[in-house]
Amino acid sequence: MTTSMAEKIWRHDRALVVAGLLSVVALSWAYLWSGAGTMEAMGDMLMPMRTGPWTLSQAIVMLVMWAVMMAAMMLPGAAPMILFYAMIARRRAAAHQPASLSAMFATGYVAVWAAFSVAAVALQFGLDKAALMSPMMELTSIVLAGAVMIAAGLYQWSPLKRACLRRCGSPLDFVLTHWRDGAGGAFVMGIEHGAYCVGCCWMLMLLLFVGGVMNLAWIAGLALFVLVEKLFPAGHWMDRGAGLVLMGWGLVTLMMGL
Q1: Is 222 or 55 the better-scoring residue by pLDDT?
Q2: Who contacts 159 (Cβ-Cβ below 8 Å, separation ≥6)?
Q3: In angstroms, rounded to a whole number, what is the distance separating the alpha carbons of residues 253 and 258?
Q4: DSSP state at residue 55
Q5: Given this model, what pLDDT does residue 52 score?
Q6: Which of 226, 247, 250, 251 is nearest to 238 (CA)?
Q7: Residue scoring higher pLDDT (39 or 22)
């Protein structure tokens, strides 16, 4: 195969992967923006959560909302990793379609965040039953909100945060240490990469309970922060600075609630 032909094939593969990622992210944000998961759109269905047990349908609605929200927020930051994987897959396994392998990688990645969404819904259920959630799905306790912000700020400085950020923010390092062949291998790699990203960002995602689970401005702000944190070389300084801001903000909030 000539170099020009190989380049044309890679450009085609890359275009498919980019188009797929953009489509999923765009549809996820469209779902959130349309209000399909908000209290306004589902008020009659979700308001009984505050006065009685959740039904199965209500729990499923909340789980779908969280899963879509995680895809909208986290896939943009994972895009460089998925594109890098597609490039290496093309070079190592020409018989396979990198676009389909990349889809398996992305599926594994999203599956991890879907599992996180299950935990988030369980936490939301507990908070709701303790009357600590408002109808707009934000914490009603100022003290608890301040404590969450302080905890998130402290986590930004933790060794675990640093280790996970290095892994999920360095495609080359991840591929060199975690490569697996085939579709099954791509799926497992996606799970592993997603696990590092959850380890990096789970405390930031809990801030959604502070600003409002369906506050689009808050969601977009957190998504942008995660993207910058992963993609820019100076992100490790920014995340520590953000940690200081969160600790200060949380301390002020905590003192206001005492």
Answers
A1: 222
A2: none
A3: 9
A4: P
A5: 60
A6: 226
A7: 22
Token pair, residue 26, equals 């765009």
CA distance 164 to 193: 9
Of 189, 205, 180, 48, the closest CA to residue 120 belongs to 205
- Is the pLDDT at 194 greater than 90? The verdict is yes
Residue pLDDT, tens place only, 169-184: 888 899 999 999 888 9
The answer to whether residues 127 and 209 touch, using CB atoms and an 8 Å cutoff, is: yes
Alpha helices (runs of H) in 156-234, residue ranges in sequence order: 159-168, 171-178, 182-206, 208-211, 216-231
Which pLDDT value is given to residue 16? 80
Give the phi and the psi of residue 139 in degrees, each rounded to 5: -65, 135
Greatest CA span in the chain, whole angstroms?
71
pLDDT in tens, 102-118: 999 999 999 999 999 99
Give the span between the Cα atoms of 143 and 201, in whole angstroms: 22
Tokens 């506050």: give the residue: 215
